[in-house]
Design a protein that fits this description.
mainly alpha
């Protein structure tokens, strides 16, 4: 990844106020740079887990991890986001319900996580919180896509073993992503909070 792209990705993740828009905040444009910036370490970590779990050579595991992660990052995650936006819009999540009660704040970063309503004074904490929420469906989408690719690449693998190995690899990498985003959330609240 080029240094310029990495700088842009980190800026979007670390300075959520730059992502303000009157029409809302489509979180895919904030989540994808984070995922792309983390792609190389994710591929390496998951290759290590796959090699150990599936008794694959390092080269085979790296190829599987590269192929699976490219597909899940470039296809699986964006498609999942589109489905989540459709669910949000079709179930009434496209409207501003205010930020005065705890329930509306929770709904604003869960139900409306795919496309945040632009509550300008609260986006500093809403964006990283929505990123944390979105990591959950993105995890399941990634696991599904990556498992299918690993099974396709090595048809002789026991399906249950392959499924468990990809699950474990994704738990580790998504856990690390969650720790990073949680750190961003704490930093945002610490530096910009009331």
């Amino acid at each position: 990844m080029s240094p310029r792209l990495l700088l842009i990705a980190l800026t979007l993740v670390l300075l959520p106020s730059l992502a303000l828009a009157n029409a809302g905040v489509p979180m895919i444009f904030i989540s994808m740079p984070l995922m792309l910036a983390a792609l190389v370490p994710i591929i390496a970590i998951e290759a290590f887990v796959l090699a150990r779990s599936l008794n694959l050579s390092g080269k085979s595991a790296a190829l599987a991890s590269l192929t699976a992660n490219a597909a899940s990052t470039l296809v699986g995650v964006p498609l999942t986001w589109v489905v989540l936006v459709l669910v949000q819009v079709l179930t009434g999540g496209g409207f501003a319900y205010g930020m005065v009660r705890l329930l509306t704040k929770i709904l604003a970063v869960t139900w409306q996580a795919p496309w945040l309503i632009p509550y300008a004074d609260d986006l500093y904490w809403m964006i990283p919180t929505a990123q944390l929420v979105l990591l959950i469906p993105f995890f399941f989408a990634s696991w599904f896509v990556e498992h299918k690719i690993v099974r396709w690449m090595w048809r002789d693998l026991d399906p249950a073993v392959a499924r468990a190995a990809v699950w474990r690899a994704n738990l580790i990498t998504y856990g690390l992503l969650a720790v990073f985003v949680l750190g961003v959330l704490v930093w945002a609240i610490w530096t910009q909070g009331p």
